Structures are given as structure tokens and as C-alpha cells.
Amino acid sequence: MIMNFLIRQIEKRDFSRIHEIALKGWLFAYGYLPKESLKGLVDEYYSDESLTFSLNRVESGTDFFAVAELNGKIIGFCHVTEENQEGAAELLRLYLDLDYMGHGIAKQLLVNCENFLRDKSCRKYNTFCNKHNKKGIEFYLRNKFLHIENKDKEDEFKNGKVLWHLEKTL
Ligand SMILES: CC(C)(COP(=O)(O)OP(=O)(O)OC[C@H]1O[C@@H](n2cnc3c(N)ncnc32)[C@H](O)[C@@H]1OP(=O)(O)O)[C@@H](O)C(=O)NCCC(=O)NCCS
After folding, report:
1. Which pLDDT value is given to residue 1?
2. How large is the angle between the packed helices 35-45 and 15-29, nearest 10 degrees?
3. Residue 24 CA, ligand 1 centroid: distance in Å
4. Rounded CA gap, 129 and 119, in Å?
5. Cα(135) to centroid of ligand 1, in Å?
6. Which pLDDT tens digit goes with each residue over 15-46?
């Protein structure tokens, strides 16, 4: 099936749809965790305030927040920053609407974000992915990320170091 989606930077009018996709993604990836807690975290991480903060960083040139749009509908997004709180480049968010997985769209979003980082002369970047998130881990390994075990960290639920630190050289 050919999907004629386009990729562009985030705009304020995308906020509610991005929140919706993130919520579906979390419930899908972390089905074994309590629903209400997941919803609370997504509401916090994808609040208008949080997304406005990201949009401001896009406008100042430190972040790239790509959204994939199909026939006017947002179907996925990917957010990278050139400089996180530790001064490193990081992939902060990557989600696809469940109905659109398996078409290479996430890969295209990633390529766009990587081009932004390359233009900024970044040589490597990292991300975190929960080790129980099979689809997510498979995606990152398929896209040449390496698992750096000694940098793993705890998730919000304090179940041990379940967040894999993944790193990729550009
Ligand atoms: C992780 C996630 C973004 C990956 O999305 P995806 O659609 O599986 O990834 P890709 O874009 O690489 O697509 C690959 C699939 O498309 C298929 N495909 C079809 N056409 C393709 C094309 N032109 N190019 C590449 N792949 C193509 C591949 O065969 C592959 O299928 P498979 O998974 O059955 O082997 C998605 O599963 C997701 O949103 N998960 C929930 C949220 C999440 O976990 N986010 C990441 C962790 S924070």
C-alpha cells in the first residue's frame, strides 16, 4: 500500500492530536502498567505547557519536532533536541498512531530528525526505551542504535533499570 504522507514541523494546532497519539502509544506499549497512572503521565508530558515549551525550542532552532500528516490528519511524530539538560543530543519522543504502524513512517520521521542533527554537526545522539516495549526496542536496533547497558535508568514506576539507554552514531 502506498501512503502519501508528508512530514513537517509541529504547529500549535497539532497539540491535541499529538497528545491523543501519545496516549494510545503508551497504553499499547505498556499494557502491563496501571492505565490511570499512564494517563496521568501522558497528560503531564503532553500538556499544552510542555508542548509549548517544545515548540519554543523548535522556533529557536535547538529542537526538531517532525509530524507525519496523511490527508490532513497527524499520524505520528518524532522529537529530537540538539541539547538536552546534560548537553547531549537526544531523541525525546517517537510515536505512530497504532493504525499506521508497519509502513516505514517511523523510519522516515527518524531520518528527518537525523538530518536536522547532522546539519547541527551532531555526531551521535541517544534515546531511552523501556525494555518491555518490544516494538520500540526492535525499531531502534533495526535502525542501528546500540544498547549501552551501564547507562540504563529507572522508569517512573521504580521497577529497576528498565529504561534501556540506546545510542547511535551519525
Ligand atoms: C516504535 C514505532 C514508532 C515503530 O513504528 P513502525 O511502523 O513499526 O516502524 P517503521 O517505520 O520502521 O516500519 C517498519 C515496518 O514497516 C514495514 N515497511 C513497509 N513499507 C516500508 C518502507 N517503505 N520502508 C521501511 N519499512 C517499511 C517494514 O517491513 C516493517 O514491518 P514489520 O514491523 O512488520 O517488520 C511504533 O511501533 C510505535 O509508535 N510504538 C508505540 C510507541 C513507542 O513505543 N515509541 C518508541 C519508544 S518511546
Report:
1. 65
2. 150
3. 15
4. 25
5. 8
6. 999 999 999 999 998 888 899 999 999 999 99
Residue whose CA is closest, atom 9 of ligand 1? 106
Q: Which candidate, 167, 75, 170, 60, places its Cα nearest to that of 115?
A: 170
CA of 25 to the centre of ligand 1 (A): 13
Measured in Å, residue 105 CA sits from the centre of ligand 1 at 7
Ligand 1 pocket, CB under 6 A: 25, 28-29, 94-96, 101-107, 129, 133, 135-136, 139
CA distance 84 to 62: 9
Q: What is the DSSP letter of 86?
A: T
Give per-residue pLDDT as tens, 41-83: 999 999 999 999 999 999 999 999 999 999 999 999 999 999 9
6-122 is a CATH 2.60.40.10 domain: no
The per-residue pLDDT for 159 is 82
